UniProtKB/TrEMBL annotation:
Organism: Vermiconidia calcicola
Coiled-coil annotated spans: none
The Alpha/beta hydrolase fold-3 domain, residue ranges: 3-142
InterPro entries (UniProt xref): AB_hydrolase_3, AB_hydrolase_fold
Molecular function terms, GO-annotated: hydrolase activity
Protein name as catalogued: Alpha/beta hydrolase fold-3 domain-containing protein
Signal peptide segment: none
Length: 174
């Protein structure tokens, strides 16, 4: 959602100091419900093909969400997934003049490689882009920050994010 909101902010002249885009889905086309198994013909992203069956964020769950949002009509699904940049931001018509954006990816995430492609598109369009990939982490790792049973990388993410936002808002010394 934050990737899409960047376009709306730009188009409405809303100043954004820093956009934090965390484990985003930026190309939904390969998640069409008719794709039962991902392969090189129906999905250009190696990470999606590798991690389509992982328990923490399987492709089937992503497809369930899409079906919930888009309904059962395959023609409607095709139209939206292949033509509506708000669902598939990698299809946006103009990538220029977007806010400074920091991407967070997880090593073992279905969307890891599509995020890297999206990052490069934004860089190529002249935008300020930074990123960090958290090694060994699954898709929703940032939420696993329980004080005693949480993931160390989740705490690292929280510290990194707090520092990034303090710097973006001129409060780095807090």
């Amino acid at each position: 959602m934050s990737a899409v909101l960047n376009f709306f902010a730009r188009d409405e002249n809303v100043p954004v100091k820093c956009s934090l885009v965390v484990v985003p889905a930026t190309d939904m086309r390969y998640l069409h419900p008719r794709n039962k198994r991902l392969n090189e013909k129906n999905c250009p992203y190696e990470s999606a093909r590798w991690f389509q069956d992982v328990p923490w964020s399987p492709m089937g769950r992503e497809q369930w969400f899409l079906k919930y949002w888009l309904g059962d009509d395959e023609a409607v699904q095709d139209e939206i997934l292949n033509n509506d940049w708000r669902m598939t931001p990698i299809l946006a018509p103009d990538f220029k003049n977007l806010p400074p954006t920091h991407f967070v990816t997880a090593e073992f995430d279905l969307a890891r490689d599509e995020t890297k492609v999206f990052e490069e598109i934004l860089r190529h369009a002249g935008n300020q882009v930074t990123s960090k990939q958290y090694a060994g982490m699954p898709h929703a790792f940032a939420m696993y920050n329980h004080p005693t049973r949480g993931l160390a990388k989740s705490w690292e993410y929280l510290e990194d994010t707090a520092r990034l936002l303090r710097e973006a808002h001129g409060c780095a010394d807090l």
